Hints:
By secondary structure, this protein is an all-alpha fold. The protein has two domains: 10-61, Arc Repressor Mutant, subunit A, CATH 1.10.10; 64-100. 68% of the residues lie in helices and 0% in strands. Helix 1 (12-23) packs across helix 3 (40-53) and helix 2 (29-36) packs across helix 3 (40-53). It is elongated and about 80 Å long. The model has no long low-confidence stretch (mean pLDDT 86).
Amino acid sequence: MSKEKSRRHFSKEYKKNAVKLVTEKGMSVGKVARDLDIHPNLLHMWRKLFFDKGKDAFAGKGDLKPEDEKLKRVLKDLEDVKEERDILKKALSVFSKHDK
């Protein structure tokens, strides 16, 4: 039987603290990665994300940034309106056939 590695999940604070060890404490990525038992590429990715997104980095699973949440809501509303429009088009088609 093979042992399956389960995917580990890290909290937003854990990621920020790991990045701070590299950026603020001046530790090397390799040392921090070894100490935390993570792959150095993962820490590089977290660091890049932190520099690119700042305080909005590491939103977490299911947690959307306010602007992403608004976009999701607007797209859902648009989908609903399109569905209503399509229903009305079909109804108009049905009723216009009866008039002839």
